[in-house]
Write a structure and sequence with these properties.
By secondary structure, the chain is an alpha/beta fold. It has 2 domains: 181 residues, Quinone Oxidoreductase, Chain A, domain 1; 137 residues, 3-Layer(aba) Sandwich (Rossmann fold). Strands 3, 6, 7, 10, 11, 18 and 19 form a 7-stranded mixed sheet that branches. The longest helix has 14 residues. It starts with a strand and ends in a 5-residue tail after the last strand.
Length: 348
């Protein structure tokens, strides 16, 4: 079968690999249908690492995907051949203190699809994955929408972790896919006003199309002054979705006294800093956000019933053979890309 492997920095190569086989009774063989190219994949693509997760080339990346069930292990009752599924890329243990307390995303023995040295990614035609990580999607949901469940479930978890946002003023720094997913989540939860920033004007425009009340470029405008003029007491919650020091600084400048800063973005550097004077004097809560703890099914439900529409995020589509072009485009922000999707039709 065909697979697109990261074989070096900024190098994706197509290879033939043996088809995977079910070896455990709780596993499922999947035909991958659609793959989303994620910003965290770009860290591996551009630098070969995220923190202490370092790629040993070649490595199979990718973790946002939808699929069709081809075969199931003898103990699987959750899905059956022919089912259409969204994939939670996390495999958790169910037995550690974190899992038992409802925090599967911080499981002590977890592995994650596409993470170096853990589990192969989905940039291929077929994968084997545990049944518990698979979620049925309705017939009316496209495979593209099903692949968007993964990033949206992160945005949804970020919103839920922030608490009740109904009637509140929100900032989202970064109009990439995760920022736009947070936007969809907070709007669905009843946020009053949403202000967004991004250094790419075309992404600000997409944010406006998806419901942001205001979006501006900090490279060409004084976004702090403009947002503060509209909201003199500050924003109740600010979601940092860019993974950049400048965005972290802006988040503190925009947050209300007693407000919250949700750190969703993954920086390429090992450390970021906070202006402690502002953080302390304004008593701002800083909350990191990791993955999508128990939010995959709610994300499917919200997309399926129309409470959120993420279709405007998808700007480019590729075949699996075109994966090198897809990764290069997303890494370099060319051609107005927001979300690139890779379609993997089964070969006859």
């Amino acid at each position: 079968m065909k697979a697109a492997l990261l074989s070096g920095i900024r190098t994706i190569q197509m290879q033939d690999r043996p088809e995977p086989k079910i070896t455990r009774p709780t596993d499922v063989l999947l035909q991958i249908q659609t793959i989303g190219v994620c910003g965290s994949d770009m860290h591996y693509y551009r630098t070969g690492r995220i923190g202490d997760q370092v790629v040993q080339f070649p490595w199979l990346l990718g973790h946002e995907c939808s699929a069709t069930v081809l075969a199931v292990g003898e103990d699987v009752t959750r899905v059956k051949p022919g089912d259409r599924v969204a994939v939670d890329p996390l495999i958790w243990c169910d037995t550690c203190d974190q899992c038992l307390s409802g925090r599967i995303h911080t499981c002590r023995d977890q592995v994650f699809m596409g993470c170096p040295g853990q589990v192969d990614g989905c940039m291929t035609e077929k994968v084997v994955f545990p049944a518990k990580s698979l979620f049925l999607v309705p017939d009316g949901m496209s495979f593209e929408q099903a692949a968007l469940v993964e990033p949206f479930s992160i945005g949804l978890y970020a919103q839920k972790l922030a608490g009740d946002v109904s009637g509140k003023t929100i900032g989202i720094l970064g109009c990439g896919p995760i920022g736009l997913c947070v936007l969809a989540a907070v709007k669905a939860a009843g946020a009053n006003k949403v202000y967004m920033t991004d250094i790419l004007n075309y992404r600000c425009a997409v944010a406006g199309e998806m419901g942001a009340d205001w979006a501006g470029n900090p490279k060409t405008a004084d976004v702090i002054a403009e947002i503060t003029a509209a909201q003199p007491t500050g924003l109740d919650v600010v979601f940092e979705c860019a993974g950049e020091q400048d965005a972290v600084d802006n988040a503190l400048d925009l947050a209300a006294r007693g407000g919250k800063v949700m750190v969703v973005g993954i920086p390429e550097t090992d450390r970021i800093s906070f202006q402690m004077d502002t953080l302390r004097r304004h008593e701002i809560t800083v909350q990191p956000v990791r993955r999508q703890n128990h939010c995959v099914q709610p994300a499917i439900d919200m997309i399926a019933d129309g409470r959120v529409n993420l279709d405007a995020m998808v700007t480019h589509r590729f075949s699996l053979d075109q994966s090198p072009q897809a990764y290069a485009m997303v890494a370099d922000y060319t051609d107005g890309v927001v979300k690139a999707m890779i379609h993997v039709p089964p070969r006859s």
